[in-house]
Specification:
Layout (H helix, E strand, L loop, with lengths): L1 H18 L3 H4 L9 E5 L4 H11 L8 E4 L1 H8 L5 H4 L6 E6 L5 E8 L4 H11 L4 E11 L2 H15 L5 H21 L1 H17 L5 H14 L6 H15 L5 H21 L9 H19 L13 E3 L3 H14 L6 H13 L1
Parallel strand pairs: 1-2, 4-5
Antiparallel strand pairs: 1-3, 3-5, 4-6
Helix pairs in contact: 1-13, 1-14, 1-15, 4-7, 6-8, 6-12, 7-8, 8-9, 8-11, 9-10, 9-11, 9-12, 10-11, 12-13, 12-14, 14-15
């Protein structure tokens, strides 16, 4: 009976999430601190104006700061490929620390890294809750985006993130990016994020155990990693395990990323292992409804007609459609059938 009640609550919550209009979420999105806008220092005046217009802020806004390539290289030199680093910083960011909901990210014209990659690496940097938009007036790799977001978060909150964690976050971003070149962005993000989740949640420090986790996680995503890739990920996660992260502070973001990645892969026809995904799904649905409302403030056509857009709530559209279909079938099936259909349709 307890299981039935719990499942009933999850199903009804999911359906209620999508039956309420987006406007009703606007007032519930809260941030206790000021937003910060970071601008790529090498943008010319026209490009800068385009970004400011996209963000909806005036050039005299006191919360604007500039991020340059030297700051980017402080954390990425020797880690990121030179072609990704370049010698200029063109990506910009709009950062709003929040009180809860984990880290939610939207990218526009950012090509080498995805919103999910940025979200999970920000959790490694020590960020717990924030809504973030990273953008450029034209397609760029986005390696400078993470640096700008971290700087913006620190300025906005007044909290200094530890240098070791910031370096690990950048290393994680590059590691995931390189793996993505081989297996795709979603699978690479899922492998690193899910393995990291297991290591942090269970406080695993033994390298042999970490290696098994990496291999098992890769299998869940139908990926055969090379020995070199396994070693790189194991070393990264071993370093992360020594930082004594609090899983409770990160779980919302880690679950959101995992669920979004799996939903994206499901849309592409991938058969992904779904063990334990129901709990993640409920977190994801609850946390992303407010972020999705926040993201809609930014009109991507202001940047370019063919802007490449990616958000950590991309899967929400698919889930909304499925929830609507389930609701229409409610008269023909019992509550348990409705629950099973909802989650199986989304993640099987």
């Amino acid at each position: 009976m307890k299981i039935l009640k719990k499942l009933s609550y999850i199903a009804l919550s999911a359906l209620m999430t999508f039956s309420i209009s987006t406007a009703s979420f606007a007032d519930s999105t809260s941030s206790s601190k000021n937003e910060v806008i970071t601008i790529g220092a090498n943008l010319n005046q026209k490009q800068k104006a385009s970004i400011l217009n996209y963000f909806g802020v005036d050039q005299n806004n006191p919360n604007i700061i500039y991020v340059n390539n030297a700051q980017e290289r402080k954390y990425l030199a020797g880690i990121a490929p030179e072609k990704q680093l370049g010698h200029v910083t063109m990506s910009s960011a709009y950062v709003v620390p929040t009180n809860d909901g984990g880290i939610n990210v939207k990218t526009s014209n950012i090509t080498w890294v995805t919103s999910s990659m940025i979200a999970t690496t920000l959790s490694t940097a020590g960020v717990e809750n924030a809504n973030v938009v990273a953008a450029a007036p034209f397609p760029v790799s986005g390696t400078g985006a993470l640096t700008g977001i971290i700087i913006g978060f620190e300025k906005s909150t007044g909290d200094k993130l530890t240098e070791n964690k910031k370096k690990l976050a950048n290393k994680e971003l590059v590691t995931t990016g390189k793996l993505a070149n081989q297996v795709g962005q979603d699978k690479a993000t899922g492998i690193v994020n899910d393995a990291k989740t297991k290591v942090i949640k269970d406080d695993i420090k033994d390298k042999e155990k970490i290696e098994k986790i990496v291999k098992d996680t890769a299998n869940n995503y139908n990926v055969n990693l090379t020995t070199g890739d396994i070693n790189i990920i194991v070393n990264l996660l071993s370093n992360i395990s020594n930082q004594n992260y609090n899983y409770k502070d990160m779980k919302d973001t880690l679950a959101n990323v995992s669920t979004n990645v799996r939903s994206n892969l499901k849309d592409k026809g991938e058969n992904i292992d779904v063990n334990g995904i129901i709990g993640k799904a409920s977190d994801w649905l609850n946390n992303n409804k407010e972020a999705n409302s926040f993201f809609k403030q930014f009109d991507d056509s202001k940047l370019s007609k063919d802007a490449v857009v990616n958000t950590t709530s991309d899967g929400l559209t698919n889930a909304k459609q499925i929830a609507g279909d389930v609701a229409n079938q409610a008269k023909e099936s019992g509550l348990i059938d409705k629950i099973i259909n909802f989650f199986k349709s989304l993640f099987n």
